[in-house]
Write a structure and sequence with these properties.
The complex is a heterodimer of chains A (397) and B (372).
Chain A lengths: L6 H17 L2 H9 L5 H14 L17 H13 L7 H14 L2 H12 L5 E4 L15 E5 L2 E8 L10 E7 L10 E7 L5 E7 L5 E14 L3 E2 L5 H10 L8 H17 L1 E2 L2 E2 L4 H29 L7 H23 L9 H5 L6 H6 L2 H7 L10 H11 L4
Parallel strand pairs in A: 1-4
Antiparallel strand pairs in A: 2-3, 3-7, 4-5, 5-8, 6-7, 9-10
Helix pairs in contact in A: 1-4, 4-8, 5-6, 5-7, 8-9, 8-10, 9-10, 10-13, 10-14
Chain B lengths: L6 H17 L2 H9 L7 H8 L18 H13 L6 H15 L2 H12 L4 E5 L15 E5 L2 E12 L4 E9 L5 E7 L5 E7 L5 E12 L4 E3 L3 H36 L1 E2 L2 E2 L4 H26 L5 H29 L10 H11 L7 H11 L4
Parallel strand pairs in B: 1-4
Antiparallel strand pairs in B: 2-3, 3-7, 4-5, 5-8, 6-7, 9-10
Helix pairs in contact in B: 1-4, 4-7, 4-8, 5-6, 5-7, 7-8, 7-9, 7-10, 8-9, 9-10, 9-11
Classes of the chains: A alpha+beta (397), B alpha+beta (372).
GO molecular function (chain A): flavin adenine dinucleotide binding; oxidoreductase activity, acting on the CH-CH group of donors
Keywords (chain A): FAD, Flavoprotein, Oxidoreductase
Cofactor (chain A): FAD
């Protein structure tokens, strides 16, 4: 056994680092570093640069225009992106709907949608959760009724991330209310311009407009926009949930957050000494450091297994639980480190308007981010759901 | 980056797993524990035949040149069966220290027979007032007329009774730490034998003006070698704890599936499912740390000590968590001595008291924490 990266992998890391230093616009990385909200244009500018480089679709095979990277390279890429304060690639097109289209889509769907995703022509959002279907996703009620060559869709989706910028929605709908609940679900691709779609913002407790409600009122969707067979939607959704989740621990982000925390806590003074020397605070930092070390090796174990042909299944759940807990703890410590400076709230600044003096700017996002990071243990299957998945699939309970 | 075992390592793992399953059932283990430790059990002879006694030693001293991963495989299998043999305390730790310090005559006299299974040794490094600090040593060694004289007391020496000789650290007149080999029957030594609460034979060793010839001095500056061997021991203990954690988790899971209350198996209750998953999470994260420790043995000392301290601190906490949950989920049964998981729980809790506990290693990590 060895935990070191090969010379080729180290050279790849250097190449990624070099590209990021060269290509990542400094105004964008500065916004990410300060925790300010990104504009649609920030995402697009960065994703266009990645697209030109051929690195946007990091998990796609070469035949569809991906770089053909393996899990190790993707891991290195993610880590370097987080370290350089690059925006996270909006995952709904590249990482979520694209693999489903590749696996279950028709030749026409592949030909039409995949190039548009690769060139950032389409901005996808996800229509999964509903007011009555969160953890119990299969309990969704949005109805799609066949009418000739169309489905008529009625219902409501929620927690639709960045739906305000999207022109396409992939959506789980109920096509057969009589069937067993998972069996009656289909997977539709819906143009957001279609009459009957309304997007309303949900402002989260950190003041951000990240998520939305999407109302579907007699929305006519061509039958050819269904992926897979009618009633196969749950299979698509489940595939998506287990597909390539080696990055789910958010290790690059956790590493970056810990680096930031340690540097912050050694600059901030507490009774004339660096805060990092306050025993109770240092104790928690060291605990986070240990957890990160363990998580990193666990993540590498899963990545190595995926590289060698395994499919990361329920192990992803372990990574998700521990990764989200760690990132939440780091956001808690960062907020705490700032002391009273964590109190002022400047929503306009965080939205990207106006400016603050440097000291305030550095600390402006900490508390908002702490509240924002509560989502990590809720989305993508709440941690309690992840534990039930492990209990069922690994422990056969 | 590679987590796969080589073919030889897989064979080693299979052989050991089979051996432990065949020869260390709960009943067999009870019988073994009841016997007076003499370092020459039938199982120890099997270890010798299988090459296990040579495995973790370099080829330069007649070993098989096994690495950290090989040692991890062995320790994990021994931990899974709670095998009552002093593989680490009676062979690996004293043997590695001999390999690092002994001259060729001393190796011929002490190390070669150790690897051949002809005798066992013990490492007497702990003292009553030093807690886990291997360098805060009060035992004195002075030189008179060419002979050495040792006086002091060593605490909780594992495998003391079975050892043909003890490797004893002592403070020299020049302030450095020396290492001596003290035969079990040397005049001036007295021993108080006992078992630890998790059934490991141990004892206190008192040295009252024990006179030794120059040939029994292994080193007049053993600090670095001792640090290296203790690091190896900590990595090995982590691996052993992983084996015991696996078994404690398996037994607990099996119990939850079989035990019924309110007309249902306990495994159907979500609170218990999630607790069981928490145990599993602790196990997998600890396994990662044990791998980190095993692969860090070849690193430069400061990096090695940082990572191994991190692993030992982490595994210590997880081991206790799993032990406590194993008892809790077994309910009243977990409180009985007869319930096999109780032996695992005791081992997993007391594992933290060997070669430095979580607090001790946490402090090391804290001191070495890299900020930039």
């Amino acid at each position: 056994m060895n935990l070191t990266f090969s010379p080729e992998e180290q050279a790849f890391r250097a190449e990624v680092r070099h590209f990021l230093a060269d290509a990542l616009p400094s105004d964008i990385s500065e916004r990410v570093r300060l925790g300010r909200h990104l504009r649609a244009d920030d995402h697009l500018r960065w994703q266009n640069l990645l697209s030109e480089q051929g690195w946007l679709a990091s998990n796609w095979p070469k035949q569809h225009g991906g770089p053909g990277w393996g899990p190790v390279q993707r891991h290195i890429f993610d880590e370097e992106c987080a370290a350089a304060h690059a925006p996270t690639v909006v995952p709904f097109g590249v990482n979520m709907v694209a693999p489903v289209i590749m696996k279950f889509g028709s030749a026409e769907q592949k030909e039409h949608y995949l190039p548009r995703i690769l060139s950032n022509q389409d901005w996808w959002c996800q229509g999964y959760s509903e007011p009555g279907a969160g953890s119990d996703l299969a309990g969704l009620n949005t109805r799609a009724v066949r009418d000739g060559d169309h489905y008529i869709v009625n219902g409501q989706k929620t927690w639709t991330t960045l739906g305000q910028h999207a022109n396409m929605l992939f959506c789980l709908v109920r096509t057969d209310p009589e069937a067993k609940k998972q069996a009656g679900i289909s997977f539709l691709l819906i143009d957001m311009q279609t009459p009957g779609i309304t997007v309303r913002p949900i402002i989260t407790l950190d003041g951000a407009h990240e998520v939305n409600e999407v109302f579907l009122d007699n929305v006519r969707v061509p039958v050819e926009n269904r992926v897979g067979e009618e009633g196969q939607g749950w299979t698509c959704a489940k595939f998506l949930l287990t597909h390539e989740r080696t990055g789910i621990a958010g290790l690059g982000h956790a590493k970056q957050a810990l680096r930031h925390l340690k540097s912050l806590a050694s600059r901030i003074e507490h009774r004339g000494k660096p805060l990092l020397e306050l025993p109770s605070f240092r104790h928690r930092v060291v605990k986070a450091e240990l957890e990160l070390m363990a998580l990193e090796v666990t993540n590498l174990r899963v990545i190595a297994a995926a590289r060698d042909g395994g499919v990361p299944g329920a192990e992803s759940s372990l990574l998700k639980v521990r990764g989200s807990e760690l990132r939440q703890e780091l956001s808690e410590l960062t907020r705490r480190a700032l002391g009273p400076a964590a109190l002022p709230f400047f929503p306009d600044f965080l939205h990207g308007e106006g400016s603050l003096d440097d000291e305030r700017a550095q600390s402006a996002a900490a508390s908002a981010q702490y509240f924002n990071r509560r989502k990590l243990s809720i989305y993508g299957g709440a941690n309690e759901i992840q534990k039930s998945i492990v209990a069922k699939t690994i422990l056969n309970m | 980056m590679d987590f796969a075992l080589t073919d030889e390592q897989r064979m080693l793992e299979e052989t050991l797993t089979r051996l432990v399953a065949d020869q260390v059932s709960p009943e067999q283990r009870r019988t073994m524990l009841a016997a007076t430790p003499n370092g020459a059990s039938a199982l120890w002879r099997t270890f010798a035949e299988l090459g296990l006694l040579h495995m973790p030693f370099g080829e330069d001293v007649g070993g098989l040149g096994g690495d950290g991963t090989d040692l991890m495989i062995i320790m994990q299998a021994l931990g899974r069966g709670l095998v009552p043999e002093a593989y680490l305390a009676g062979l690996v730790l004293p043997g590695q220290l001999l390999a690092l310090t002994a001259n060729s005559d001393q190796q011929t006299q002490w190390l070669t027979p150790l690897l051949e299974g002809e005798h066992q040794l013990a490492l007497a490094w702990q003292e009553h007032n030093a807690r886990y600090d291997a360098l805060a040593i009060a035992t004195q060694a002075t030189q008179q007329d060419g002979q050495w004289q040792l006086s002091g007391r060593k605490d909780v020496v594992l495998n003391l009774e079975a050892a043909a000789a003890n490797l004893v650290t002592a403070r020299l007149d020049n302030g450095k730490l020396g290492l001596f080999i003290v035969p079990a029957n040397a005049p001036g030594t007295s021993s108080h034998f006992y078992c630890t609460i998790d059934d490991q034979p141990a004892g206190d060793l008192t040295l009252d003006s024990v006179t030794l010839p120059p040939a029994n001095c292994l080193s007049d500056d053993v600090g670095d070698a001792l640090a290296e061997v203790l690091a190896l021991g900590r990595a090995a203990l982590c691996a052993q704890a992983i084996g015991a954690m696996e078994e404690a988790c398996d037994q607990t899971l099996a119990y939850l599936k079989e035990r019924k209350q309110f007309g249902l198996p306990l495994s159907t209750f979500q609170a218990l499912q999630h607790r069981m998953v928490d145990m599993h999470l602790h196990l997998e994260q600890s396994r990662s740390m044990a791998i980190l420790a095993a692969t860090s043995l070849i690193l430069p000392a400061s990096e090695r000590d940082y990572k191994i301290a991190a692993a030992k601190a982490y595994c210590g906490e997880s081991a206790r968590f799993i032990a406590e949950q194993a008892i809790q989920l077994h309910g009243g049964m977990g409180m009985s001595e007869e319930c096999y998981v109780a032996s695992y729980a005791k081992h997993l809790v007391m594992f933290d008291h060997h070669l430095g506990d979580s607090d001790y290693h946490f402090e090391t990590v804290s001191e070495l924490l890299k900020v930039a």
